[in-house]
Structures are given as structure tokens and as C-alpha cells.
Design goal:
With about 350 residues, this protein is mostly beta strands. The chain folds into two domains: about 160 residues, Galactose-binding domain-like (Jelly Rolls, Sandwich), CATH 2.60.120; about 150 residues, Galactose-binding domain-like (Jelly Rolls, Sandwich). It has two helices and 21 strands. Strands 12, 13, 15, 16, 17, 18, 19 and 21 form an eight-stranded antiparallel sheet that branches. Strands 1, 5, 6, 7, 8, 9 and 11 form a seven-stranded antiparallel sheet that branches. Strands 2-3 form a two-stranded antiparallel sheet. Strand 2 and strand 3 form a beta hairpin. The longest helix has 12 residues. Its EC number is 3.5.3.4. Pathway: Nitrogen metabolism; (S)-allantoin degradation; (S)-ureidoglycolate from allantoate (aminidohydrolase route): step 1/1. Belongs to the allantoicase family.
């Protein structure tokens, strides 16, 4: 695991600390590219950083862990379309050209689109209105090139263009998930999940891995897919704060320490509040935890909340944090009205 700098202030982080909506692990997919002769475009959305092994040659040349097109001999651009795993508002993108030193594109641009349902590639190419979110911009080789995005619309697809050709290792699309709220009407769902609009808003420490992992879908497959803090040497404890998909009532809490064997927290507590200025109240009292275990707690709590905070004692790692429940009627109606007005 690659250590990351801690975030002790609890302030909203830079956009690169927001979840990557394009990740394959979140359900993202590269559904089209006009060329990937040297290295397939699917590599763009892999979770781990790009790797490189010198003098590793295949039939087509050096093997790259990224997307690489052939050298253009005619005018034009090379493009790839990514369907976001979690549709939402994009706050920024990173065009990562790691290990591409003499074969990176000198310029890139990024467009986005909002298309309902599951469109075909032909529909995306011929019938879709694409909105520029990063104008044509210069990039450096072997560098993570960040670009802030000011558009506040909800998008389902993004298109990366290289001018004229070259290679990109990873394409990160950081933002906030905005699902179709009509889906929320059909029973309990995870109010904290990234794909449902949950968002990490503050965190005491993310030395080993991002707290965004807590809200990913499914089960973690290894320890690196969870949230892990550094070892505390003081009397405090670590914590993470989540803004829920909407105002709702939580009926079941899941605290999953899977794969954390000698570094799981000794205990955890969950609190909630209704509004950013509301008082914190107890959702789950401080409870002892076991290593490598999926803990589930049914609640008898009829109190709405918009935010949750999980405290772990004193430190350690957690694979997943899930809060199952339902939206209040007012919150559900408000989200649907926003959706139908085209707001995100």
C-alpha cells in the first residue's frame, strides 16, 4: 500500500480526494475507443497505479499498463468513451501519463454527456450532445495532470481525446454520485453508498488508504480495498464523517473489518445528525469489534439524519461502512423534483 498524507483538519479536501466515479471497481467501463493498438483502453480505469517493467516486449512493442494508440499519419484525434460507474457531478479529472515519456499526447480535452438508460456506442457517437468540461489543454509526460471542472450538471459518460495520439496510463474522474432517485422508492438501500450519493466529507486520518473505499459497492477483496489509518501514539481516536444520499432513517448498520486481522479497531461508535448545524445523537453505542468480521446491527431508531460519523477506537482499518434505511417522504420528493428539473 502506498502511504498517503493524513488529513487531520477535517476540511473538505481537494477534488482528488473525492471518489473516482469512473473506476472499474465502481462499475465503470471503457465502452469505445477508436484505436488501442499498443495498449488497451480498459487500462484507463483500473484501480491500482500504473506499473512499468523495462524491456517487456510483446508482438506490438513495449507492453504498457495504460492506453496507447498507434502513431497518426493523418490528421485527427484519438478518443475513448468511459461510462461512469456512478453517474454524478464531476469536480475534476486527472489525466495520468505515468511511464509515458516519449509517447504521451501533447494535448488532451475532456467532454461529458448525460444519457439515460443504456445507450449503444452508435447512439453515443451519433446522437449524443457532448459538453466540454476540460478544454484542449497541454499535458506533461510521466505526470499526473489534474484539471478542475466547473460544470455542475450530472453526467453519465465522459470522452477523453488525445491530440493527436499517444498514451495515457490512467483517467480519473473525481466527483459526487447522483443516482436516479426514483430507484429509492423500492425498499431499503444503503444511504451511505457512493453510488447512491453518499460522500465522505471529513476524515481524521487516511495514511494508508482512502476513506472513500468504505462506501464502495460489494465486499472488499483484500485489505487494500478498505480504509486504514496510521498507528495512534496519543489518547485520541480516528473517525470519518459521511453525508448521506438524503435525509433518511437508518435501520441497519454494517461495520465490516474483513481482511483486517492484526489492525482492526478494538471498538467503534456511530452517531448521526439532522442538518449540518444539528446536534450529534447516538446511532450505535460504542461496541467492541472482532477482526476480519462482517458486523451487522439492527437498530430501533426512528430519527431522521442527513450525516453520519463513525468513530473507531483507537485506530486501525475498516473494509466497509454501510447504513441501510429509507429516505423521508419530504427528502424523496425533493430529490425527485430536483431530478425532474435537471438539477444535481
Amino acid at each position: 500500500m502506498t502511504p498517503q498524507p493524513p488529513n487531520p483538519t477535517g476540511n473538505r479536501p481537494h477534488f482528488t480526494s473525492m471518489p473516482d466515479l469512473a473506476l472499474r471497481d465502481l462499475g465503470g467501463a471503457v465502452i469505445w475507443s477508436n484505436d488501442d493498438l499498443f495498449a488497451e483502453a480498459q487500462n484507463l480505469i483500473k484501480t491500482p497505479p500504473a506499473e512499468y517493467q523495462p524491456a517487456t516486449f510483446g508482438h506490438k512493442g513495449q507492453v504498457y499498463d495504460g492506453w496507447e494508440t498507434r502513431r497518426r499519419r493523418q490528421s485527427g484525434v484519438d478518443q475513448a468513451i468511459v461510462r461512469l460507474g456512478a453517474p454524478g457531478v464531476v469536480y475534476g479529472v486527472v489525466v495520468d501519463t505515468s511511464w509515458f515519456k516519449g509517447n504521451y499526447p501533447p494535448f488532451i480535452s475532456v467532454e461529458a454527456a448525460a444519457v439515460e438508460g443504456v445507450p449503444t456506442v452508435a447512439q453515443l457517437l451519433d446522437d449524443t450532445q457532448w459538453v466540454p468540461i476540460v478544454e484542449r489543454s497541454a499535458v506533461d509526460g510521466d505526470t499526473r495532470n489534474p484539471f478542475k471542472v466547473d460544470a455542475k450538471n450530472r453526467f453519465t459518460h465522459v470522452r477523453l481525446s488525445m491530440y493527436p495520439d499517444g498514451g495515457v496510463a490512467r483517467f480519473r474522474v473525481h466527483g459526487r454520485g447522483v443516482p436516479n432517485p426514483h430507484f429509492f422508492r423500492y425498499g431499503h438501500f444503503d444511504l451511505a453508498a457512493l453510488e447512491n450519493g453518499g460522500l465522505i466529507t471529513a476524515c481524521s486520518n487516511m495514511f494508508y488508504s482512502s476513506p472513500n473505499n468504505l462506501l464502495m459497492p460489494g465486499r472488499a477483496r483484500h485489505m487494500g480495498e478498505g480504509w486504514e489509518t496510521s498507528r495512534r501514539r496519543d489518547s485520541g481516536n480516528d473517525w470519518v464523517q459521511v453525508r448521506l444520499a438524503g435525509r433518511g432513517r437508518v435501520n441497519l448498520v454494517e461495520l465490516d473489518t474483513s481482511y483486517f486481522l492484526g489492525n482492526s479497531p478494538g471498538a467503534a461508535m456511530v452517531r448521526g445528525r439532522d442538518g449540518e448545524d444539528g446536534e450529534w445523537f447516538e446511532v450505535l453505542p460504542r461496541t467492541d469489534l472482532q477482526p476480519d468480521t462482517r458486523h451487522r446491527f439492527v437498530l430501533d431508531l426512528d430519527r431522521p439524519m442527513t450525516e453520519a460519523r463513525m468513530d473507531i477506537y483507537p485506530d486501525g482499518g475498516m473494509a466497509r461502512f454501510k447504513l441501510y434505511g429509507t429516505l423521508t417522504e419530504d427528502s424523496e420528493s425533493e430529490l425527485i423534483e430536483q431530478w425532474e428539473r435537471g438539477e444535481a
